[in-house]
Design brief:
- There is one protein chain.
- The protein is an alpha+beta fold.
- It has 2 domains: 3-149 and 299-387, RlpA-like domain (Barwin-like endoglucanases, Beta Barrel); 154-288, Barwin-like endoglucanases (Ribosomal Protein L25, Chain P), CATH 2.40.240.
- The protein has helices spanning 42-57, 75-97, 106-122, 175-178, 182-187, 205-214, 241-247, 258-267, 272-277, 367-375, and strands at residues 16-18, 21-23, 26-28, 63-66, 69-72, 123-128, 144-149, 153-157, 166-169, 197-201, 216-221, 224-233, 283-288, 305-308, 318-329, 335-349, 358-362, 377-387.
- Strands 7-17-14-16-15-18 form a 6-stranded mixed beta barrel. Strands 9-10-8-11-12-13 form a 6-stranded mixed beta sheet, covered by helices on one side.
- β15 and β16 form a beta hairpin.
- α1 runs antiparallel to α2.
Length: 389
């Protein structure tokens, strides 16, 4: 998502050879892969359903090239149908074996092995060409760099009170209002009285800044939750706050994480206007019935949607398999990392997501999702799957 930079589908130097052919910078994988997914498949089936609904609205036309192979672009829909069929076959396999009184977990191990074998047989597997010039000093073997994002929760009200005082705004129709900077909106109150407030929340301006980074969230009003998604931006450049904090000597480079930024702003209120104003970009939101939206108003699915570089992978619905490490908190509250592997669908884009071997994983809502989003920056392997049929 990162819809702060949500881009219209556009041509890029590595993407289209012409209007009808999308060329992906990928190469064929010659060996078998272990397709061992660390989650249950419920959310993956939901993500597939949402993607198929998008394909029904935006029929697949033209061609797409993976490695040296060129396909009609409707192969993407066929690939999802193939995977869905195999997942349902796996589920039936597990259910049928449970009647044999086998040792715990045996049925899943056997069925997963058969599932992985079938995926290797039924799909061609590709991997992105490595961005050697973009290689960063980050832990983890592999060619693809993974980060994560999530949807923050807010406590809100429909009316302004002493507790609920910070507004979340809808997109103005007046062009002059739409172009206002963050300073003009947050500190000069130039949107006050324009009837654009969706909610007032008790969380801080820093939390609203993070909402603009994540591009969507959830607001609890009373007992009800309301989803909010990206509706538009003011057109000014987005600049992360840590640049200003570091460049002006307010925080050292090695101590400028999100929590350090938050603490500095809370303990130095006199600096808030200057710091927040260093990012003139402002994001407006809309209320949606589903989870925050990705490309083409596809509802994102927790732990099953990811964002790719739209200048390179401009077609939504690419079937991905990710192998890397994810962060978690141990019993002492320290961030640790553990192996994971999982199917994802390319259903989002982001201006901060740049490169052939680069993906941002959507982790959903809640504390665990936040931990992963704030701490994941790890290399691993990324694969694209295309049905042979």
């Amino acid at each position: 998502m990162f819809p702060i930079f949500l881009l219209a589908l556009m041509l890029g130097p590595q993407s289209f050879a012409n209007d009808n052919l999308l060329v992906t910078p990928t190469e064929l994988v010659q060996q078998s892969i272990s397709f061992n997914d660390d989650l249950e498949y419920k959310n993956l089936l939901l993500a597939i359903e949402r993607q198929k609904a998008y394909f029904a609205r935006a029929p697949l036309k033209g061609k797409i090239k993976f490695g040296n192979d060129t396909y009609d672009r409707d192969i993407l829909g066929k690939s999802l149908n193939q995977l869905e069929f195999m997942i349902r076959k796996y589920i039936l396999c597990v259910e049928s074996m449970r009647g044999f009184n086998l040792p715990f977990g045996t049925e899943k191990t056997y069925c997963q092995k058969e599932f992985s074998k079938a995926v290797n047989q039924k799909f061609k597997i590709y991997k992105p060409q490595e961005d050697i010039q973009r290689r960063e000093d980050i832990s983890g073997p592999g060619r693809a760099l993974f980060t994560a994002y999530y949807s923050p929760d807010f406590n809100g009200s429909l009316t302004k009170t002493e507790t609920f005082k910070n507004p979340i705004y809808s997109l103005p129709t007046d062009p002059a209002l739409k172009k206002l900077t963050r300073k003009e909106i947050d500190f000069q109150n130039k949107l006050d009285g324009k009837n654009l407030e969706l909610f007032y929340v008790e969380e801080s301006l820093f939390d609203l800044y993070l909402l603009s980074v994540e591009g969507g969230g959830r607001v609890k009003v009373g007992e009800d939750y309301h989803y909010i998604s990206y509706a538009g931006a003011n057109g000014h450049p987005f600049k992360f706050l840590y640049h200003y904090l570091i460049d002006n000597g307010l925080l050292p480079m090695n101590q400028a994480g999100l929590e350090e930024q938050r603490q500095y702003l809370e303990t130095n209120p006199h600096q808030q206007e200057a710091v927040y104003s260093s990012n003139p970009s402002y994001i407006f939101f809309k209320i949606t019935l589903d989870e925050p939206m990705g490309v083409g108003s596809i509802p994102l699915t927790s732990e099953r949607s990811l964002a790719l570089d739209s200048k390179i992978y401009s077609q939504p619905g690419l079937l991905n398999f990710v192998v890397s490490k994810k962060p978690y908190l141990d019993e002492a509250g320290k961030v640790r990392y553990k192996n994971f592997s999982r199917f994802f669908l390319g259903q989002d884009t982001g201006g901060a997501i740049k490169g052939r071997a680069r993906a941002d994983l959507y982790m959903g809502f809640g504390r665990e999702a936040q931990i992963q989003a704030n701490n994941m920056k790890y290399y691993g392997e990324q694969y694209f799957l295309v049905s042979k049929e």
